[in-house]
Amino acid sequence: MSATTLGHKGLEAVKNKDYEAALPLLDKALASSNSPAWLLARSQTHQQLKNYDAALRDAELAYHTAAERSSGTSRKFMIDAQHRRSVILHRLGRYADADCCAKWSMLLAEGRPAREDDGVEKQVDSNGNYTVTVEDAIADNAGQPNYNPMSGLGPGGDSATSKPERTGFESEWTRAYTWRSQVLSMLKSLPEDHAGRKVTVTKIPTKPEPQKLEPKVEEEIIDTSDKNDAEKASAPAPGSVPDDQLKLRADFYQTNQNVTISLFAKDAKRENVQVQFFNNYVQISSIPRSAAPYVQPGDREAASTFTLGGEIVPSGSRFTVTPRKIELVLQKATPGVKWSTWGTEEIGISAPKAGVSASPVAASSVVAAPEKQATPAITSAPVASTPKPTGAPAYPTSSRSGAKDWDKLGDDEDDTNKEDINGFFKTLYKGATPDQQRAMMKSFIESNGTALSTDWTDVANRTVETVPPEGVVPKKWKE
Fold first, then answer.
1. Where is the region Disordered (predicted)?
2. Domains in the chain with CATH codes
3. Which residue of 114, 327, 343, 378 is 20 to 30 Å from 307, comparing CA positions?
4. Residue 462: is it exposed, middle or buried by C-beta count within 10 angstroms (0-12/13-18/19+)?
């Protein structure tokens, strides 16, 4: 199979979020060619598999490969590489570094020179802490590419309010712009002496050496009757996989009353998963581990203790299990209090820590039925009802699905995907001034979701045009 075929198959696997299948395909393709597209896809794959060092290395190599090729797509790949660096650094808790890379992604999308000394990484105080805030990021739209290709002038033809012409990377600019609010919100919650406040990255990363993969010896064909014995003999011993690689990828969102945590566990089965809710932590057993498929229900690796970011009401909490994730819906003990983080995972069932309350509730009394399945009869104590969250204002939208509640936008898979951007819109919208909020709603609605502006003076007196991604032609409903 040619490298091109392998690369296309790897990209398709990443698109379908089948990262375990994507990795060997991309490894083989990249053994022949350092394609920036394949490197970025493998970077995303490593990130999803929590191989963060490898993910960062591929993103940085993709940046250099794209810059050296100087083709028509080079800038696009460089923009994506800086954004991918930002996402991975965020995962590593290096929030100041993550914001710098997001800003560099914006500057490239604005058409600025790649080697320009913009001083982004120099915005630190006397202690070396990064000084950029969420408010600074919201106001940082002066270089936003112009969505009106007919004129570079602002409302009324005032050249003082002119914005840069279109660059073709408007969607990439918006992606980085919205992402920064999430990064800086996390930075704001850190202690003053936290390492995540320090800037350690450079705009142009050190070029990594191309990875050399050891050639694999062709496997001996094993008779089908001996297959199970052979798999058992080749399986790694329990405890040989580092705990950090075993931990589940988690996303969360919250309302005034509840915190919903999605723990991504492929092939999770409702009949196997056991959950116990405590005041400050949750214990889950029989978790399938993609990083260690040999794990059995009784092994230490099959269980985890999740220390929560706040206190909950165990009797008002519940969970669901689907083939891709375990979802916890936790009722806050103190409604209205915002959690800065969902918590942390520790492999195995650990004893309660000092200061952590242990008031368990049997899983059978709080389990919600699996999604898209018939609800079985429950013979134990009834499910405690969860108070409905106070309704947040719904704003007008051009979407056929109806009005949007910007405080309840969802979450799901990757940081760069739609669900995470929706979460960032929530932070962005809440922190904006009334004029900025009006500008965001007007530009988003009138452009059919393809443009976002926080500059009311720019959009107040004009209709914001629909600007689809490059290569896409907009059509009216009746066409």
1. 150-169, 225-244, 378-418
2. 34-197 (no CATH), 248-365 (2.60.40.790)
3. 378
4. middle
